[in-house]
Amino acid sequence: MIKLIVLDIDGTIMRNGKTNPEDILALKKAMDQGIVVTLASGRSSSSMHEIAANIGIDLVQTPIIGQNGGQVFYFQKDLTPKFVYRSFFVNDETNTLFELAKNKKVKLFAYTEKDK
């Protein structure tokens, strides 16, 4: 018996910036049968709320995985995330990664929650 469906967003539940209404309908049918549906994505919490709400995920009760596993959170009633898990690089680790990428000529994608 299926108890949980975990979906990626980009290229899975969303293609070309849009969700497929047939996918949403199928997920809502699964939820009506008691199956928990949630998201796991490389995206941050701020870009996942609208998508989760569109699918019909219970934002207050269902944990969502963001930043490729670096965040696990629920949304509070005011729609701000309540983090239950967060993993960060410390400055020395970040500096080492950027220096290695520069020396090896590797493209590196990163984001920050702070300006500095």
Please state roughly what percent of the residues sit in beta strands, choosing from under 5%, 5-15%, 15-25%, 25-35%, 35-45% or over 45%: 15-25%
Cα(first) to Cα(last) distance is 47 Å
Mean pLDDT figure: 91
Q: Could you say which overall geometry the principal axes of the C-alpha atoms support?
A: elongated
Number of discrete helical segments: 3
Instruction: Please give the order of strands in the largest beta sheet.
Output: 5-6-7
Helix-residue proportion: 25-40%
Which sequence of SSEs, written as H and E, runs from N to C?
A: EEEHEHEEEH
Main sheet summary: 3 strands, antiparallel
The chain-level structural class is alpha+beta
Count of DSSP E strands?
Answer: 7
Radius of gyration based on Cα positions: 17 Å
Stretches where pLDDT is under 50 for at least 5 consecutive residues are none
Q: Can you characterise this structure?
A:
It is a single chain. This protein is of the alpha+beta class and 116 residues long. The protein has three helices and seven strands. It has helices at residues 21-32, 49-55, 91-104, and strands at 4-7, 14-15, 18-19, 36-39, 64-66, 71-75, 81-86. The strands form three sheets. It has a three-stranded antiparallel β-sheet with strand order 5-6-7, with no helix packed on it. A two-stranded parallel ribbon has the order 1-4. A two-stranded antiparallel ribbon has the order 2-3. The radius of gyration is 17 Å and the shape is elongated. The termini are far apart. The mean pLDDT is 91.
